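Person: Please work through this fold.
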Amino acid sequence: MNNNSPLIQQLTIEEQLHEAQNKILLLEKMMIEQSRLAIMGEMIGMIAHQWRQPITIIGMITNNTILDIQLGESNQEQLLADMDLIDKQVHYLSRTIDDFRNFFRQNKLPQSVTMRDLSSELLTIFGKTFDNNHIVLTFNGEMEFEFTTYKNEILQVFLNLLSNSKDAIEVKEVEKPFINIVITKIVNSIIFEIQDNAGGISDEIINHIFEPYFTTKSEKNGTGLGLYMSSIIIEKHLFGTITAKNNDQGTQFTITLPINQDPKRAHVY
């Protein structure tokens, strides 16, 4: 049999294409994991900030209770009130750990969520950090509308965008900083508009921000993967679109997603 026949050559080309596609998917998976690990490092720092206050409160209550007992000044009413406050702080600590763990849990099936659900987790993660930097984070629009998506994937994108806005606000020392997220339902799509007042992105680079390894941060603080992987997640995994533009306040990112994700069509890592 002639090994140089067109059929064998065609099969070889198809096999090469298939191998190349597999390599691209593997590279994407590795880059997403790298991006996720970078976010995890930031989240650990944010959780440390959020834990500091409740741990301080628990420590103060404990020390005061011990002192009251030693001095014979404890009373049941105050003790019950203190225990209730400790219980609330413990529940808060537990919730932050659950949110952190859930974010990195593999979830291969889409689920029904609302922006109210997503905003709760985002506020848990960013709340204290934003408070410390006097950044006002607001959500407006269709907060209760249910849509079907891969929750952890879209959360990763929001974490990237909010973290970038926070960094820009800090670098530019913005007075009265804010980040506003507006949610709109249009026909079969849900649209998220993420607006900050950090002054915008330079016109020379705004068209390059979704390219791999492109970053305006120092090598120490940026991997250049956050926005690139956000575009991969939105466009290739969730079959939506993501764009960025400047306006008179700062940068506005617009994400458009289908209301219902088809698990047979979409894929996540």
Q: What stands out?
A: The domain at 109-258 is CATH 3.30.565.10 (Heat Shock Protein 90). Strands lie at 111-113, 136-141, 147-149, 178-186, 189-196, 241-246, 251-258. The chain has five helices and seven strands. The first helix runs from residue 6 to 71.
